[in-house]
Amino acid sequence: MDALAGVLLDPLFRVPLLTGLLLAAVLPLLGAFLMLREEWLAALGLAHLAAAGALVGLAGGLPAVVGGTLGALLGGTAKALLRARGNAAYGFMILIGWASMLLVAANTAIGDALGHALIDGQLYFAGRLDLAAAALLVILSAAALPWLGPRILRARFFPRFEQANALAAWRWHLGLDLLAAGGMAVGTTTLGLMGAFALVFVPAWLSFRIAASWRWTLILSALVGSGGYLIAFAVALAMDQPFGPVLVAILIGLAAVMSPWGGRLRDSSG
Amino acid sequence: MTIAVGSPLTVELLRVEGLVAGYARPVIGPLSFSVSRGEVLGLWGGNGTGKSTVLNAIARGARILGGTVERAPGLTLAYQEQQPVRLPVMPLTGYDLLRTAGGDHAKPPEALAAILPRRIDTLSGGQYQLLCVWAALGSAMDLVLLDEPTNNLDPTTESRLVEILAEQRGRRAVLLVSHERRFLDAACSRVLAVDPWSLGS
User: Fold this and answer.
1) Which residue among A2, A124, A143, B143 sits deepest, i.e. has the most Cβ atoms within 10 Å of its Cβ?
2) How far away is chain B from the Cα of A90, in angstroms, using its nearest Cα?
3) Considering CB atoms only, which of B60, B77, B97 is closest to A157?
4) What's the ipTM?
5) Which of residues 150-209 of A touch B (CB under 8 A)?
6) Residue B94 CA to chain centroid, in angstroms?
């Protein structure tokens, strides 16, 4: 236990640890809303676009988090404006991002190594700019989700309400799309492509099955994401393993252990 | 044409004049009627007569190909569709769903109280249907549109719905469509018969 605390509190890793922890708390919340809209696959598409944007940005002299954010925001905006929903749209996002990322990686001097870093996760190299981006994401989410959340829920369960009352629904649909795009951009450039996607997908998937209410869905998503992240951070360091795959394995392990509780918790809500 | 303002219980909230509604082509009309505050108005007709299209046109979802739909200034609508959205996994309780619809402005009927703490994906089709209808009726919206609210309801639950709707008379404006004439006669303060190309009462 002391060894674990020692790893987590090592000053060398303080900025990466805190950056990842902020993301591990907020990405699962965004994941819950994407799961609600059945758009969790869009997160993987945005992650690929963010990775491609990061590499394009690096080739042009921009920090990865800036290029990644621009790439994902571009994708999120296009998705919202074109009303591109459904697996086909997300499939194209993934393919465009993947092809762009690998082509840029293959044709730039540092691209190949950075391409691998984006896929594997480069959390331990996160700096103050990444921390600032993660903190900004948390602040924006804390400010926007209390307003966006009820409207997204209403749009999901009562889809005719907005049209019947002539509401400007594009504001909250675009708002969530941009927040998700920003989250996937900062997440991908910090935690790696699959690490960020796993934080969006797995905690929300689990919470949807076992939480007793919507409030608990959000709380449980954030707790599973944060808890899984802290375990993965310590395990990857202690066992000298790449962070991204360890995070994915831990989250899947948590889902496998906790999902059998689902029936009991759901029944207890009655 | 303007909507007249009268006493609180006779304020006309919606006036439909010579409405021809549809999508690519006309489905129903011309038809005319009005709905006032405190009135539970039923539109009756068989399957395929275009009753739902009338509600859709009022809710800005179907095209108005002729005539007019005039809403009172600032009119707010609650609209419960024929098939409520039902996802395979829904981690919301009944209370969550009511809050989402703004349907927690009135005390829910006893028939619903017991199921409100439960996750909505554990409810039967009838329980969920009744919950969604109440989500509209329990809201603060001016006019409630209900499309075939008896779907999935067994006779016992249907009679509960009749009681709930009957309680709305004199208090809320409700416009509902159904193919069940006996249900409409029991629940509504006025019933209009609809056929694809005309409306009579």
Assistant:
1) B143
2) 20
3) B97
4) 0.86
5) 150, 153-154, 156-161, 163-166, 207-209
6) 20
